């Protein structure tokens, strides 16, 4: 029985020594002792705070003829689903390289690309923007959405790269809109 207690005491003392060393704070390193967790994470280059940002902006506009007499009217499309799609380094568009956003009341969108897409070489050549879905009440809803538009670099300052597609113009191509165009051209109102 004494041998059993001897082994038990030995195992308990080993256990206490191991747990004491595992929970002890590292000493002799003032950086670790004087810094918070968030400061150490930032110093190591990891963490919640992004080191850079890449945003893609643009506006979705519908050009439609609402009445023959008024001609073609261009207005912003709110609640349209827009996506940025990027090819990976091998030129393949993968599903996880799509980022979607909805336009605001002015038809504007701003898509913040995830950091996994920041390192794609020649981002302006690898990424395009496409309108995926229009709201049900849009006059341009019944017609083809159109091709994808390429992005252009607007600025690169303070770890923020801003790309834009400008305006994505969706056009109604019905007989009514062609007659509107004829009325508009006869009246020499060819602003667009």
From TrEMBL:
It comes from the Eukaryota. Keywords: Signal. Residues 1-24 form the signal peptide. This is Pollen Ole e 1 allergen and extensin family protein. It comes from Aquilegia coerulea.
């Amino acid at each position: 029985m004494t041998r059993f207690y001897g082994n038990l005491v030995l195992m308990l003392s080993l256990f206490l020594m191991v747990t004491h060393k595992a929970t002890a704070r590292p000493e002799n390193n003032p950086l670790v002792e004087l810094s918070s967790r968030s400061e150490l994470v930032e110093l190591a280059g990891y963490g919640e705070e992004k080191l850079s940002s890449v945003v893609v902006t643009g506006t979705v506009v519908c050009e439609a003829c609402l009445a023959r007499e008024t001609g073609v009217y261009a207005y912003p499309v709110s609640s349209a689903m827009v996506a940025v799609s990027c090819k990976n380094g091998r030129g393949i568009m993968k599903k996880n390289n799509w980022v979607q956003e909805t336009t605001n009341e002015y038809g504007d969108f701003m898509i913040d690309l995830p950091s996994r897409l920041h390192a794609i070489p020649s981002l302006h050549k690898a990424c395009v923007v496409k309108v995926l879905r229009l709201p049900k009440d849009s006059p341009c809803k019944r017609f083809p959405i159109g091709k994808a538009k390429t992005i252009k670099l607007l600025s690169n300052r303070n770890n923020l790269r801003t790309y834009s597609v400008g305006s994505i113009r969706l056009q109604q191509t019905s007989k009514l809109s062609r007659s509107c165009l004829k009325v508009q051209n006869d009246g020499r109102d060819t602003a667009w």
